[in-house]
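Example record

One chain of 263 residues, shown exactly as stored in the release files.
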Amino acid sequence: MFVHPIIRFLYRQPGRSFFRRKKEEFYNIILPYLYKKLPNVQIGENNVFTSPYNLSFKHDKAALKIGNDNFFSAKTTLAVFEEGKLEIGDYCAMWEGRIGCRFKITIGDMFLAAENFIIEDSIGHPVDSEWRKRQILWFAQNRRKKTTEKYDESELTKEERQFIDHFAFAAMPPMEDVNVGEIIIGNNVWIGRNVTILKGAKIGDNCVIATGSIVTKEIPANCVAAGIPAKPVKKLPVIPFQTTMKKVKEQYKDYISDPRDTW
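Predicted structure tokens for this chain:
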């Protein structure tokens, strides 16, 4: 489709693009420097952080390790709670999603994540309704503390407040196989839009997880998985890239790509 050069020029908003680019360049310099100052953090080279919210939460005892040449979009957030351990390999690219690590999450090399992905190794809140109700009251009372130091004993007793204070994160200790579970994602995995990966999930190398899927268990290597919960639906052969190049060049001799469409 032909687009007039003037319309293309106006659409790209060169001034705005210039300032956005400079802002991202500043973040790429300052954010890795600041992140590396945090305890138990290892960050490799050539990582692209595009927002100060890329690392939204990091406890002192939590461990974060990021390899080399990764890209995190402005709406991608990494949160590592309590004594969680989050490890990300090399050459990964993530758009508009969230990783919440309270236990252990390991992501291999060349991981691609589309928009609105969620990776959580904890259920977050108590399933027990009475426990969860007191947790909500605890949050409400803490907000109220800004205006008064007095707590309503009819809502939460002193003993209940002390209990929630002690188990501060979602009022639950991390219990393996109960409310937390290790997540392992292999190398060269691509997850589509709106994919959720939950505690205990394991995804093998070279997998594709279809849009809208929820992964709760093990997915074997070299397959397409889809559904809720996600299950293998197609085996993916490993084809030598030289074979693929030859086939594509023969079939699409007249095709011309536009570099502006690439990321």
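Notes: The radius of gyration is 23 Å.
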